[in-house]
């Protein structure tokens, strides 16, 4: 054991649909340890505690030596998808009870006569109207009926059994006084009741999206509060005395308080960490244009990282009826890392479609239980991991570093009975078909994502990670015509690494609609100053030094009459009419980048004002992840294995120990590189080199 001292170790924990990943970093001891174990779906905190206990034991540390734990979770997403959240009541302006049901009045599929819409989080019986009205300019047209608020709250809680209440009044983004007073009345009646005010959750124009976000926040708030309290108390029971921080969907680290007050901001908590890890790798390697490719057990995530920063967006759809169909979910106004998710992971199941007779892969997944057939936990349908094992890409005796043995015999039987019997394709051909389908699915989605942004994949480098990412990265890059793939050390748990390198950060937003020439600059500056003060207080609570916090102001602007706006960087935190030429120029530059043309004579208006607040993130020397005994391993391959490649047949591949490869080591494909949590496939004709940061850099022919 290390001697007791000031706690310096930090642990990142990513709870995924199949595996829970962990990374421990102790800069004082130049120590990095990684871990991966199956997620416990019934109670994710069980895998968290078991994983932390094991990784501390392997590092020779105690819970008292841990400075902080940074956690990301898919619990918010799962709660909305599965509709297992709280019973929520909604108080809204008289006459606007059905706003969240009417929505945008658009159809995500024009020709589907039996179109299914997402189930509402708040049924009509739990939506009550309150006499009050504020105009778009902030004037009070009808005072708040406080007695009606109290009566409605009693009806929702005592008669309807509401466990949380959302309040969404018209134009509260501009003048929140009625919402604030309603919240005070409800808290006076029910002090412990979770309350979500739309003016606090999403203070932005457009009442449908704002109220939808407030309802979603209320829907998950009780469950997330209980979960986070349970994780915190369970960690404390082990002797942990440090801080528990949470990853936001936008890629920043925040406090437990913000996570409990605004859990909807955690909707993409886990996936965001992978993008932050890719940005960190890009900074280390000096890469300006990167495609982040994170393939885990349930899904694959793609994100563009330009100039070493992941792209962001400020809206998200949750709980889609058709998982990858835009417009089929609940709209949320939250800051998220801009990425696509594809139902293509190691656990994605292969089947024969009864209508067409064609083989389909995903989006249905085997998850952690029962998992793929090869796990031996009761799975009967072949999954992508089963195909990878059958094709020779995985070593059945070295999965998770040998902790979990994979069984090949039932995999052959599953392919024979469920695929070969239906199609007549041989078992090995069927496994190759699974790989082809899943890789083409990911390639097609990535091409579309890049095309929508006007990007050429040939100009990008792929950073591949996740348990299944390095297995499929070479072939996916080949399909996309990407010439270089970077696989970091510890790729199988890189999302957890993202928690440790992500900065304390948050995004603030306020709406104020006006034409540029008519802006009230005092009001704009007051909005920016208020957001700066709020952001500084929050990040200071999260452990950031106030003098190291940076602020990036942005305005969402459009031509008058347009339906949607674009983000435009602002020249400073204090603005005046003298800044108008610079703001107009920035708008035209952003507009041209997106639409390839500008209309300079058309008037411009601003709608919302944003402030991104961030402190510097952490840095990790991944050389500390190499086991001390690795230097004793021979530099050559430790084994050989036959692998089936499409178009090349079965090829003999040297199998290299990832930890034994020194900086500067060069490999020629076909070859396999194995580490504890993942295997990297280097295909025929490709070459690979270990760079100065221990990344495995693969160059395609």
Describe the overall structure.
This protein is of the alpha+beta class. Among the domains are: 9-79 and 226-266, 2-Layer Sandwich (Nucleotidyltransferase, domain 5); 87-193, no CATH class; 505-614, no CATH class; 622-699, no CATH class. The chain contains 16 helices and 35 strands. The strands form nine sheets. Strands 13, 14, 15, 20, 23, 24, 31, 34 and 35 form a nine-stranded mixed β-sheet that branches. Strands 3-2-1-4-11-12 form a six-stranded mixed β-sheet, with helices on both faces. Helix 10 (384-390) packs across helix 12 and helix 12 crosses helix 13. The chain is globular, with a radius of gyration of 26 Å.
In terms of topology, how is this protein built?
Elements: E1 9-15, E2 19-26, E3 31-38, H1 44-59, E4 66-72, H2 75-82, E5 88-93, H3 99-102, E6 127-130, E7 133-134, E8 140-142, H4 146-159, E9 164-168, H5 177-189, E10 195-197, H6 198-201, H7 207-237, E11 243-247, E12 253-254, H8 256-261, H9 269-285, E13 289-295, E14 300-306, E15 309-310, E16 312-313, E17 316-318, E18 330-332, E19 336-337, E20 339-342, E21 348-352, E22 359-365, H10 384-390, H11 409-423, H12 427-452, E23 461-465, H13 469-480, E24 484-487, H14 494-501, E25 505-515, H15 521-541, E26 550-559, E27 566-569, H16 580-595, E28 604-614, E29 639-645, E30 649-657, E31 666-668, E32 671-674, E33 679-682, E34 687-690, E35 696-699
Parallel strand pairs: 1-4, 4-11, 5-6, 5-9, 9-10, 13-23, 23-24, 30-32
Antiparallel strand pairs: 1-2, 2-3, 7-8, 11-12, 13-14, 14-15, 14-20, 16-19, 17-18, 21-22, 24-35, 25-28, 26-27, 26-28, 29-30, 31-34, 32-33, 34-35
Domain Hydantoinase/oxoprolinase N-terminal: 10-187
Domain Acetophenone carboxylase-like C-terminal: 539-695
InterPro entries: ACX-like_C (IPR049517), ATPase_NBD (IPR043129), Hydant_A_N (IPR008040), Hydantoinase_A (IPR002821), Oxoprolinase-like (IPR045079)
């Amino acid at each position: 054991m290390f001697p007791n001292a000031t706690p310096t170790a930090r642990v990142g924990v990513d709870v995924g649909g199949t595996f829970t990943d962990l990374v421990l970093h102790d800069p004082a001891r130049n120590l990095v340890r990684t871990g991966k174990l199956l997620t416990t779906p019934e109670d994710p905190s069980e895998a968290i505690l078991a994983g932390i206990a094991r990784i501390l034991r392997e590092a020779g540390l105690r819970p008292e030596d841990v400075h902080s734990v940074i956690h990301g979770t898919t619990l918010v997403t799962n709660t909305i998808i599965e509709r297992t959240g709280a019973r929520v009541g909604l108080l809204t302006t008289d006459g606007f009870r059905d706003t969240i049901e009417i929505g945008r009045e658009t159809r995500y599929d024009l020709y589907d006569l039996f179109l299914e819409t997402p189930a509402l989080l708040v049924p009509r019986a739990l939506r009550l109207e309150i006499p009050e009205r504020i105009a778009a300019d902030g004037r009070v047209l009808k005072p708040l009926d406080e007695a009606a608020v109290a009566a409605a709250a009693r009806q929702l809680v005592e008669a309807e059994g509401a466990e949380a209440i959302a309040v969404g009044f018209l134009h509260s983004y501009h003048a929140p006084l009625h919402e604030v007073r309603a919240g005070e009345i409800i808290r006076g009646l029910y002090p412990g009741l979770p309350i979500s005010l739309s003016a606090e959750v999403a203070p932005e124009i457009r009442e449908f999206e704002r109220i939808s976000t407030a309802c979603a926040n209320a829907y998950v708030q009780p469950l997330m509060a209980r979960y986070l309290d349970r994780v915190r108390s369970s960690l404390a029971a082990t002797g942990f005395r440090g801080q528990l921080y949470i990853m936001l969907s936008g890629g920043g680290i925040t406090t437990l308080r913000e996570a409990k007050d605004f859990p909807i901001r955690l909707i993409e908590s886990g996936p965001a960490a992978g993008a932050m890890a890719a940005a960190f790798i890009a900074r280390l390697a000096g890469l300006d244009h990167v495609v982040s490719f994170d393939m885990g057990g349930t899904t694959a995530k793609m994100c563009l990282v330009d100039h070493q920063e992941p792209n962001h967006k400020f809206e998200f759809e949750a709980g889609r009826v058709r998982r990858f169909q835009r417009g089929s979910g609940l709209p949320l106004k939250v800051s998220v890392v801009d990425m696509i998710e594809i139902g293509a992971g190691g656990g994605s199941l292969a089947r024969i479609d009864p209508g067409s007779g064609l083989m389909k892969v995903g989006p249905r997944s085997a998850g952690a239980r029962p998992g793929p057939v090869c796990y031996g936990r009761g799975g009967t349908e072949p999954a992508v991991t089963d195909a990878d094992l059958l094709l020779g890409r995985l070593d059945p005796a070295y999965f998770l570093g040998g902790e979990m043995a994979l069984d090949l015999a039932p995999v052959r039987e599953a392919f024979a009975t469920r695929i070969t019997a239906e199609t007549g394709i041989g078992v090995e051909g069927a496994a190759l078909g699974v790989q082809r389908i899943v890789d083409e699915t990911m390639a097609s989605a990535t091409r579309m994502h890049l095309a929508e942004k006007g990007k050429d994949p040939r100009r990008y480098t792929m950073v591949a990670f996740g348990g299944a990412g390095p297995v499929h990265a070479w072939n996916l890059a080949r399909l996309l015509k990407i010439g270089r793939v970077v696989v970091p050390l510890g790729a199988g748990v890189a999302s957890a690494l993202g928690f440790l390198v992500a900065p304390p950060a948050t995004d603030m937003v306020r709406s104020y609609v006006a034409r540029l020439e008519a802006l009230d600059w005092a009001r704009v500056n007051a909005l920016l100053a208020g957001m700066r003060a709020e952001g500084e207080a929050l990040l200071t609570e999260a452990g950031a030094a106030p003098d190291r916090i940076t602020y990036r102001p942005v305005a969402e602007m459009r031509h008058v009459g347009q339906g949607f706006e674009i983000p435009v960087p602002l020249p400073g935190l204090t603005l005046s009419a003298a800044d108008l030429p610079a703001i107009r120029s920035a708008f035209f530059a952003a507009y041209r980048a997106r639409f390839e043309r500008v209309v300079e004579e058309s008037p411009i208006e601003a709608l919302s004002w944003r402030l991104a607040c961030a402190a510097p993130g952490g840095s990790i020397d991944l050389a500390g992840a190499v086991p001390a005994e690795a230097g004793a391993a021979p530099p050559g391959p430790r084994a050989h294995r036959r692998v089936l490649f499409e178009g090349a047949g079965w090829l003999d591949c040297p199998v290299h120990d990832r930890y034994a490869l020194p900086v500067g080591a060069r490999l020629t494909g076909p070859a396999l590189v194995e580490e504890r949590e993942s295997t990297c496939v280097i295909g025929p004709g490709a070459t690979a080199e270990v760079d100065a940061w221990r990344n495995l850099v693969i160059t395609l022919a």
